[in-house]
Amino acid sequence: MGRIGRWGLALGVGGLWWWAVMRLAFAPDAGVLEGAVAAGGWGLSLLPVHCVPKGRAAGAAGSDQWARRVSEAWRRWRGPLVGRGGSS
After folding, report:
1. pLDDT tens-digit profile of 34-69?
2. pTM for this structure?
3. Torsion of the alpha carbons at 52, 57, 63 and 66, rounded to the nearest 10
4. Cβ(54)–Cβ(60) below 8 Å
5. Phi-psi bin for 85: left (phi > 0), alpha (psi -120 to 50), beta?
6. DSSP symbol at 80
7. Of 8, 32, 63, 72, whose CA is between 20 and 30 Å from 23?
8. Residues whose CB is less than 8 angstroms from the CB of residue 82 and which lie 6 or more positions away in sequence, other chains included
């Protein structure tokens, strides 16, 4: 599928989702079909489709690195106050 096909598919699915949302909001006879389309589109937006494994992610921190980075940031922030023996 080429670039035009992907854009066409994205616009078509997006248009279908907006149609369902607008019918739910403004049409008194909107029903289960519109609700399912709207809920399904919203649910798809929550999928992490841009995720890659940690090993391939550029600049990503693993779970152990996260704790270390927080600890280092805390020490940098609190560093000048520690070890002075008096109030600052």
Report:
1. 888 888 777 666 666 666 666 666 666 555 666 777
2. 0.46
3. -140
4. yes
5. left
6. G
7. 8
8. 75
The separation between CA 24 and the C-alpha centre of its own chain, rounded to angstroms, equals 25
Residue with tokens 């992610």: 57
Asked if 62 contacts 41 with a C-beta cutoff of 8 angstroms, the reply is no
The residues, any chain, with a CB within 8 Å of residue 38's CB and separated by 6 or more, are 17, 20, 21, 24
**Cα Rg, the chain, nearest whole Å:** 25
Q: Cα dihedral angle (72, 75, 77, 81), rounded to 10 degrees?
A: -170
Report the alpha-carbon distance of residue 19 to residue 71 in Å, rounded.
49
Task: Name the helix (H) or strand (E) containing 20.
Answer: helix 3-26
Tally of CB atoms within 10 A around 20? 20
Distances in Å between the Cα of 70 and the Cα atoms of 61, 73, 75 are 11, 5, 9
